[in-house]
Design a protein that fits this description.
heterodimer; A: mainly alpha; MetI-like fold; globular; B: mainly alpha; 15 helices; 75% helix; 0% strand; disordered N terminus; disordered C terminus
């Protein structure tokens, strides 16, 4: 049997493998998803790259212009400004959200495993960002908003929040922290459950302080979850759109015109598809670099438990 | 270091310390719950207030001039004159229609994406065919491409197909698969014991028979988890349906809410109506959450380990 298989010429064997029943069935199983993947992931990816090298207003045919869009982009002050605004948002959002979430998770871990409390924590995460933005637009309203009434009551005076160039971005960051901190805390909480209790007992016997235990045991062993959380939340933050679309529309002036809003304006308000696609390609590259950097810095593939 | 004389006072201080720690933990958790839950109450309170009286008394924590007319006018139950008198824009808004559209779009995507992704995942997990692992790797790269990169080409494709402002256009990109769904289900299918399938195969069951009668019934929990995640994502998404489905006949809730917010009758948005609309839009998610909250919470633990 082995001899006959070995002596068979390779081409018919490949054909036979391609057309045997199981292979045929497998392709049948795959067909719908393959159509979806090719049509809405693979082809658009390649087509997007091509469009980024063209000048196209959607009325006439696209004109190939080489790297002109990229050259224009790097010379456009507004492009750099939108990058700066995006980074500012990420820096306002991520560290505070992550620290709050770890703190909440550690405290929950100490006193309660209640499903109800955890359920309430993720309620904001379940809502559409559009609704969360509407709720906070109302909460932060300059004249009638609850927060301004509270501020006045406490003697802080009324604040413009989303209406001021200085406060708009911090306000949007706080809105998103409200929406996602509970969810992130649950991820850390789940991570805490994987740390062996024996480690804490050993540390307690050695007389280690709570602070020492947190820095030497809890935090290092949370690293796999930390990597997951940071990579996903940072990628998400770079693409913030819905909140800005509902609250500020990129304003006041350009204080919240993040990179996705910049792309949106060029694509769907000025109809410069080539230029808009080029910016999205650059955003994609930034995300790849950010992800690789994080994986390196946080040594994502190693575990302290092993 | 740890002499027996030092042990007693140390245990004593530790005891006190933990009690304070627990108290502090509860205080922080309760504060976090108040911050998370209060905005929900503020939305309810606003939606049940009379517009004019609320403007005169913005600080009240309870509804001002209790009324349900905001819900009635948002659902198109009162005539235009009454709606305008209650603070509406006077435009015909019918949330029943948008609720129906959101439901149709979400149900189609949840059913289609889950079913077709399960077929593909089964082929990747259990069937043998050439280039299987290479193809799976290609699918995985789809996980890493941010939505904004494929957004513009996908929009152009839907426009070329003249599917804009149809349900088909809104559901097309996510109906046949999502890389995450295939990845998630393949992981689960790989873990199912092969013996059952082999026994069924000996009894003459076809591959599809095995998939439909054995694999699917055994995969209730992961399929439900995936369906919930897909439901929440689809129900909440804004940018894609905004780009391809602005027409009233197919407009979904998130898009309707953003448009509703921008209709500003007397300078300021129609807050009481907007908050009533917000509550109506939240209801399906909240019902699902109450029925399946425990699963959602557990699912978060699952994805944390990913």
């Amino acid at each position: 049997m082995t001899t006959s298989a070995a002596s068979r010429p390779p081409l018919p064997s490949l054909l036979k493998r391609l057309f045997n029943q199981e292979t045929f069935l497998a392709w049948l199983f795959l067909l719908p998803s393959l159509i979806g993947f090719i049509t809405f992931y693979a082809v658009p990816g390649v087509r997007g790259l091509y469009i980024s090298f063209t000048d196209w207003d959607m009325l006439s045919d696209p004109k190939f212009i080489g790297v002109d869009n990229y050259v224009d982009m790097f010379q456009d002050k507004q492009f750099w400004r939108s990058l700066q605004v995006t980074f500012y948002y990420v820096i306002l959002n991520i560290p505070l959200q992550t620290v709050l979430a770890i703190g909440l998770a550690v405290m929950m871990d100490r006193v309660t495993k209640s499903n109800i409390i955890r359920g309430l924590f993720i309620m904001p995460w379940l809502l559409p960002p559009v609704i969360v933005a509407l709720i906070w637009l109302w909460m932060l309203d300059p004249t009638l908003g609850f927060i301004n009434n509270l501020f006045q009551f406490l003697g802080f005076g009324r604040q413009p929040f989303l209406g001021s160039p200085d406060q708009a971005m911090p306000s949007i960051a706080l809105i998103n922290i409200w929406q996602y901190t509970g969810y992130t805390a649950l991820l850390f909480f789940a991570g805490l459950q994987t740390i062996p209790k024996s480690l804490y007992e050993a540390a307690a016997i050695d007389g280690a302080s709570e602070r020492r235990i947190f820095w030497s045991i809890t935090l290092p062993l949370l690293r796999p979850v930390l990597v997951f959380v940071l990579v996903t939340t940072i990628i998400g933050s770079f693409q913030i759109f819905d909140t800005i679309a509902v609250t500020t529309g990129g304003g006041p002036i350009d204080a919240t015109r993040v990179i996705t809003w910049y792309i949106f304006e060029f694509a769907f308000q000025r109809f410069q598809m080539g230029y808009a696609t080029a910016v999205s390609v650059v955003l994609f590259l930034i995300l790849i670099v950010a992800t690789i950097l994080q994986m390196r810095i946080l040594r994502a593939d190693e575990s302290d438990l092993a | 270091m740890s002499s027996s004389t030092a042990a007693t006072p140390q245990t004593y201080t530790r005891q006190r310390h933990i009690n304070w720690g627990k108290l502090l933990s509860w205080a922080v958790i309760i504060l976090a719950l108040i911050i998370i839950l209060f905005p929900f109450w503020w939305v309810v309170r606003t939606s049940l207030s009379t517009q004019r009286e609320m403007l005169a008394n913005p600080e009240s924590l309870a509804p001002v001039g209790f009324t349900t007319i905001n819900y009635a006018r948002v659902l198109g139950q009162v005539d235009t004159a009454t709606a305008v008198a209650a603070g509406g824009s006077g435009q015909q808004i019918n949330f029943w229609l948008f609720l129906r559209n959101s439901t149709i779009v979400t149900v189609l995507i949840v059913v289609g994406q889950t079913f077709f992704s399960a077929l593909a995942a089964y082929a990747f997990a259990r069937l043998k065919f050439p280039f299987r692992d290479k193809l799976f790797f290609v699918y995985l790269t789809g996980l890493m491409v941010p939505a904004i990169v494929t957004l513009i080409p996908n929009y152009l494709l839907i426009r070329d197909l003249e599917w804009d402002n149809t349900y088909m256009g809104i559901i097309a990109p996510t109906f046949l698969m999502s890389p995450f769904a295939v990845f998630f289900l393949r992981q689960f299918f790989l873990g199912i014991n092969k013996e059952l399938e082999e026994a069924a195969s000996l009894d003459g069951a076809s591959k599809f028979g095995i998939f439909w009668r054995i694999i699917i019934p055994m995969s209730g929990p992961p399929l439900a988890t995936l369906a919930i995640l897909t439901f929440v994502t689809t129900w909440n998404t804004y940018l894609w349906p905004f780009l391809v489905g602005k027409d009233e006949s197919v407009r979904v809730l998130t898009v309707a809410l953003a448009i509703f917010r921008s209709q500003t009758p007397q300078g300021a948005p129609d807050w009481t109506g907007l908050m009533a609309a917000t509550i109506i839009s939240m209801i399906p998610t909240l019902i699902l959450f109450m029925l399946l909250g425990r699963r959602v919470v557990n699912n978060i633990q699952f994805s944390g380990f990913k």
